[in-house]
Amino acid sequence: GLVNTRAMFAQAMEEQFAVPAYNFNNMEQLQAIVTGCVQSASPLILQVSGSARKYIGTAFLPHMARAAVDLAEELGRPIPIALHLDHGGSAELAKECVDSGFSSVMIDASHESFQENIRITREVVAYAHDHGVSVESELGVLAGIEDEVSAEHSSYTRPQEVEEFLNATGVDSLAISIGTSHGAYKFRLKPGEQPPPLRFDILDEIERRVPGFPIVLHGASSVLPEYVALVNRYGGKMENAAGIPEEQLRRAAASAVCKINIDSDGRLAMTAIIRKVFAEKPGEFDPRKYLGPARDALIELIVHKNTEVLGSAGRV
Ligand code: G3H
Ligand code: 13P
Ligand code: NA
Ligand code: ZN
């Protein structure tokens, strides 16, 4: 069955890697994520946003989670799998997800005042912990568009607020803002320019204040140039797309960061391959002929992330 994130994070902290949290919306993404994690023997956090939950529908979602667990077994290597609500926009939604079989939820009240964030988070923690479900919360705001949460600019997490927040809420993990953001356009860069480094000084200060506490990094896609190039080559238009360099994520994974969220990179890989098939075989209209290769590309991407970036491969 599904597991909560507690044992995963304890292992990640101890062994200095990060557990991958991949978003999914459909069957092919789910199959690819599970297959990639089984092939690389990695623990897995499967996450759905509020809007992804609506897209999938409540009739399907519990069965898809169950199918994920069954698929890993069928492939010959059961791996720990958590089903996590990503960016829960209200306590009501988070509780609904606890009731419908999620093993982990995020309550994202990071756009509220500090005290209001504490109040809402506490409410979710009390309910979720009663049901054995782990809770992630967020302090600080990421730039860009989050699901049901939007902010023009980042405001970095203030390390001096972290200890009080953790004590007051009892959350199991904390998402922080140190320079990542959501989507495929994380930085406006001039040609040849490197993105600014993440604020590891803030992360270090947080670790100093709450040693051993699991930290979460959202907005951690690398927006790999080879996929952007494929999209643009085959009729797409993604100008100035940019993500977090893998080297920065390797460094984060070796720290107290225990969960790294990746959505955009998977979307990009699938879209690139679908565009390629459409361009090269314009007569093709069997969905399996383009969703199949897209699924294969996503498996490869997942294995790459787990093996080369997060260090979660071989931990099961
Ligand atoms: O952080 C948000 C995730 O990438 C999911 O976004 O609301 O488009 O499903 P979504
Ligand atoms: P990316 O858009 O960088 O993939 O971030 C995903 C995320 O943080 C989901 O919560
Ligand atoms: Na880590
Ligand atoms: Zn996020």
TrEMBL record:
<protein>
    <submittedName>
        <fullName>Fructose-1,6-bisphosphate aldolase, class II</fullName>
    </submittedName>
</protein>
<keyword id="KW-0456">Lyase</keyword>
<dbReference type="InterPro" id="IPR050246">
    <property type="entry name" value="Class_II_FBP_aldolase"/>
</dbReference>
<feature type="binding site">
    <location>
        <position position="138"/>
    </location>
    <ligand>
        <name>Zn(2+) 2</name>
    </ligand>
</feature>
<dbReference type="Pfam" id="PF01116">
    <property type="entry name" value="F_bP_aldolase"/>
</dbReference>
<dbReference type="InterPro" id="IPR013785">
    <property type="entry name" value="Aldolase_TIM"/>
</dbReference>
<feature type="binding site">
    <location>
        <position position="218"/>
    </location>
    <ligand>
        <name>Zn(2+) 1</name>
    </ligand>
</feature>
<dbReference type="GO" id="GO:0004332">
    <property type="term" value="F:fructose-bisphosphate aldolase activity"/>
</dbReference>
<dbReference type="GO" id="GO:0030388">
    <property type="term" value="P:fructose 1,6-bisphosphate metabolic process"/>
</dbReference>
<dbReference type="GO" id="GO:0008270">
    <property type="term" value="F:zinc ion binding"/>
</dbReference>
<feature type="active site" description="Proton donor">
    <location>
        <position position="86"/>
    </location>
</feature>
<feature type="binding site">
    <location>
        <position position="108"/>
    </location>
    <ligand>
        <name>Zn(2+) 2</name>
    </ligand>
</feature>
<keyword id="KW-0862">Zinc</keyword>
<keyword id="KW-0479">Metal-binding</keyword>
<feature type="binding site">
    <location>
        <position position="182"/>
    </location>
    <ligand>
        <name>Zn(2+) 1</name>
    </ligand>
</feature>
<feature type="binding site">
    <location>
        <position position="87"/>
    </location>
    <ligand>
        <name>Zn(2+) 1</name>
    </ligand>
</feature>
<dbReference type="GO" id="GO:0006096">
    <property type="term" value="P:glycolytic process"/>
</dbReference>
<dbReference type="InterPro" id="IPR000771">
    <property type="entry name" value="FBA_II"/>
</dbReference>
<dbReference type="InterPro" id="IPR011289">
    <property type="entry name" value="Fruc_bis_ald_class-2"/>
</dbReference>
